[in-house]
Amino acid sequence: MAEHPPSDQTPAGAPAEQAAVDRHWRRLALAAVGVAVAVGGLLGFVIIPAGQREHSHLSMDAAMRRAAGLEAGSPAHPQPPAAINSLPVSQVSWDPAIMQRPAAGNTARGAELAGQVCAACHGETGLSVTSAIPSLAGQTSYAIYKQLHDFRTGARVQPDMTAVAQSLAVGDLASIAAYYAAASQQYAALGMRDLSGETEIVRVAWEGDTRRRIPACMSCHTNGVGGPIETPALLGQNREYMAAQLNAYASGARKNDVYGRMRDISRRLTPHEREQLARYFQGTL
Amino acid sequence: MRSLERLTLAHLWTGFVAFAIACLLGVWQMWVRSPLTAPLSTPDRYYQSVTAHGVSMAYLLTTFFVMGFGYYVAETSLARPLPGKRWAWIAYGLGLTGGLIAAIPILLNQATVLYTFYPPLTGSALFYLGLVLVVVASWIWCAQMLVAMAQWKRSHPGQAVPLAMFGTTANAVMWLWTTVGVAVEVLFLILPAAVGLTETIDVGLSRTLFSWTLHAIVYFWLIPAYIAFYTMAPEEAGGRLYSDTMGRLTFVLFLVYSLPVGMHHLFMDPEHSTGFKFLQMTLTVLVAVPTFLTVFTISASMEIAGRLRGGKGLFGWIATLPWERPMVLATGLAFFMLWFGGGGGLINMSFGMNAMVHNTSWVTAHFHLIFGGTVVIMYFAIAYTIWPKLTGWQSPNISLQRLQIWLWAIGMMVMTLPWHWTGLQGQWRRIAAFDYSNPLIASWGPWVIVSLIGGIILAVSALLFVWNLVTLHRSSSPRFAVGEVPYAEAVHPPGRLPASLNGFGLWNVIVAVLMLLAYGYPIAQFFIDPPPQAVVHRLH
Fold first, then answer.
1. What are chain B's domains?
2. Which one of B65, B219, B379, B434 is the catalytic residue?
3. pLDDT tens, B156-183?
4. Which residues of B touch A41 (CB under 8 A)?
């Protein structure tokens, strides 16, 4: 340890002389920090805006207000609105209020409606009766609600389902979605299927094909992986139904996919690949 | 073994165990990123591993090391018992419990949000609670450092606080300021979202609060290395510290200029205006000042040592330095790597150039080089210096310590230089896999493999480090005196010292004013004109 000089030569104990030293250092420190802040402030709030002003056709005042964050936005020229009017593909936009709906669905009411309206085709626990009709087991309430709502608004069209969805209130749709999501929790076997397919198809499913800009199916279609929350689960879905949907997306007959993601992907898949993927994801029990 | 030794060893061993695990995970991650097929590789596991690696390195290794080393410095440099040692053990228990609690959801893949959290992603609440406990433990440590220094000053009126303790207390003061940002973010934004009290989260505000912490935390990790530069390296080299005042200025400047600068992590974020970004950039530049002060002072101190050992001429003193001693060797290598890491840092903090490297692996390479090349290598040297004094056993084989430090430095350069290069080529960061069938990406492949080789060298070095420490517990060579203190004397021991270089009152006021100027409006704007919130995405 360093030896310290006797205390009569040292700092905070010796008032008279020491106070002068302290004052000097305090001033020095404050001045140095003050200069640094002044330079930074001048640069950020005056010099840079002065440079930007000319190119952005702004007044100095507006440029400085922007630099301080008091006025919005970098685009000095507003961007033109998109030239084509896009068709509303789906009116379900997931804000917290809408997300509450499937979560708040009344499953008792849902069970009652499902028994009267849905079960004849989709089964009591969401296992459908034929391969052309989708199974609802294993789907989240968000996925089911999204499709029902799209049928109701006309974003997706299928004669039977459109009629059913339009005859029910939005709250009822949410209840049905909540019921089937809960019912399928008891029926967990869909996730236990054996999957087998050709190497190329398995690769598309799990890794995609970046050269054709086809993302992996499973990068979105697994619950909880981070894709859009309405994304349906694919494992165990009926082959005929799935193939029909991929073909409908590819032809543009179905268009309730936000941003046209599935239309885009389906068009890049060959008809054979669509068929093979549907077969692969159905799997075997 | 005395209680101080037990306390210090418990902290350092906890940190180093976390470090060794994190190193092995790191190699696997580099393997996954490379064109070679890594075992067990799925994107899910990759991000899980990145989370575990980051949490272990950034929160566990560093916090436990800083705390353990701080206790050691407080008792040895002040030459009096640490006040409230019972609290130190309580803090250790809290920190260890917190680390283990945070580890559970990470292992269950329910907290794969990386160590920087990235809201609106949220993981299991246990993850955040565990980390909060680690931070609370470090707050207890901060209080103890402040009390230890205050008590010493009371009983030594007018005397200069020993430089090692001054640096340690500067770090404690800085850490208290630093953790405010992340604590507010976790307690008021992330935890309510993680437990389901809120369905939306203000991402801009979260990121702003995290940026408050994100730069200063790096200096929290770094200050022990600087304490070693100023107090241990000149002593080990057989010389004296060229200037005690420079050391004090350096620690004070780190305190002042590490905090109002965090927005340089948000240059490409839309929620802040250019004016505040430029202001914080300007303040960031000033961090170069303490860095250059240190490079100058320590080079001068080494020159004194070299000349005392008979070195002649302009550079002759370099050759006569005792490079065989781990502390001297590590200091030299750390300075060498600081040159590259610091240069990269200057590019990152320049608003314009940042746009080129932002979100590329250049940034990842940069922080690995600074962290491994300047911080952790000095943790090794500190451990090698104080371990014999803690256990009383001398190393049976000091050449293994040298080998370990050399392997670390070589591994770090081999890993990070190509990594910087691929970043300049546009390689993204936070990506679990690259499509090497794409010709552009394929051209990065060989460089990533070189980085992987660097990573393997680092892992070997990390394991050798643990082995070297183990041998210091069961050595057969003679014991030597415990408690001999390793701090260098200054050429001119501090005599008349202004109060501002012997305490932190003035600097706390300056930090408060700077934080108000730099972060006041940028944070207030979220409340004046609330932006749209993001829907919380729960991963658990």
1. 3-538 (1.20.210.10)
2. B219
3. 988 999 999 999 999 999 999 999 999 9
4. 275, 279, 517
